[in-house]
Amino acid sequence: MHFNIPATEEQIDKLGGRFVVYHVYLDGFLYCKMRYSDMYKLDEELRRVFGDCLPTFPPKYYLSMTETMAEERRLLLEHYLQKVSANSSISTYDIFCMFLIKMQQETFKFPIKNCVQEILLPDGHEVRADIQSSDPAERVLEIVFCKMELPRQVMAYFSLFLVEGINGGQYSVLKKLAPFELPYVSLKSMNDEQCMIMIRKSYFDPEIDRTVMGSSCGLNLLYLQAVSDMETGCWAPTNEQLEKLRLLQETGQKKEFLEVAQQVKHYGYMQAEACICDHPVPNSPAVVRVGYEEINCCTKLLSNQAEETSFEISKVRCWSVRLLGTSTGNPSEEDGMKLELSFEYCYGNDTWKWITIHTHQAFLLSTFMHQVGAEHAAKNLEMNSEMQIEMPDVQIKKKQSFFQYMKTDKARPILTRIKSAVRRSKEENVFEGIEDKDL
What we know:
Largest sheet: 8 strands, antiparallel
InterPro entries: PH-like_dom_sf, PX_dom, PX_dom_sf, SNX17-31_FERM_F1, SNX17-31_FERM_F2, SNX17/31_FERM
Protein name: Sorting nexin-31-like isoform X1
Order of helices and strands: EEEHHHHEEHEEHEHHHHEEEEEEEEHH
Number of helices: 12
Strand content: 25-35%
Distance between the termini: 61 Å
Shape: globular
Number of domains: 3
Keywords: Protein transport, Transport
CATH class of the largest domain: Alpha Beta
Family: Belongs to the sorting nexin family.
Number of strands: 16
CATH superfamily of the largest domain: Phosphatidylinositol 3-kinase Catalytic Subunit, Chain A, domain 1
Helix content: 25-40%
Structural class: alpha+beta
GO molecular function, one term: phosphatidylinositol binding
């Protein structure tokens, strides 16, 4: 998740005093509005727990601020939120989450009430969940899982997403909801009938499919999303694969369908809408996909030929999202914010180059790149842990076999020579403190 404060507004309190309200955006959409004093209190509470782990908080000013000082404070508050949210220990802490829930509620002032939230499945069908308007995304996901009889152990592999309906009954993914975000409030604040909440898998490692497919309900969710992705052209099966998939789809063989789908190019990738890329030449129309191993970019050249480039995730050093223009709260609007995702890529021989993609889904692509990085880090940690566990066992076995050998008749001449060498060394004061019993 990525916080920004691209805009501020001045308001007047009941006593006629003026104060600044900061517009806080989460992944490109207006999340809440808050005052400096709100964030100051948050920092005080967090600092009691995390101390010096927190970044420096912008100082108070007791006199009127100049425009330069006000702009500096806006940037410092933005950087503060970004650094705090990047620390998983802090961003998942109750104080931080409850503060953001409170700010979202106070900003949009929707009454807290019992309601029915419609949650889309990947194939467009709906699940009606009985929730409270103040329930965060994590709680709503639990309710949906309970209603669909999905096991809790696979819940970590799915998330709620804000999607927008487009032509042909298809949906464009706009953002992944943060665990503390209020789906009811986020959806209502959009004031767009085409926007809905959808449940989708939120991982890229194809090996995780095996775990999810162990549950019949998990298998069904994966199947629905795979069929939807196939219909929208997210992956490119060969004619032979497509024929097999259609046959398995018609006969309702979901597991077999997924097993064939896993062999298809770009299976499990997230595909963004048509965008503009500066590779291989500036202003190239492109289709971008993010997968477990790569960022796949298919660009259309001036000759109308397509050129496909694979940027390996392991060779991406860093990336960033830039906001261009004035935000209106809906990045998809022409007069809304313009976004671009840039990443630094190694072409070999320590040659680094920045690749820029202009798309209103820049924050979403960034979110998925973070997810891929987290999955790789978790897998590497697991492998290292297994190695650390196995290595002592190997060493113990080697020591045991050595001592067993030294007790055999074959080792007695060797042991006798070692003892003789130690006695001679002791006489010459070479090895002090070594006794025969040590051998």
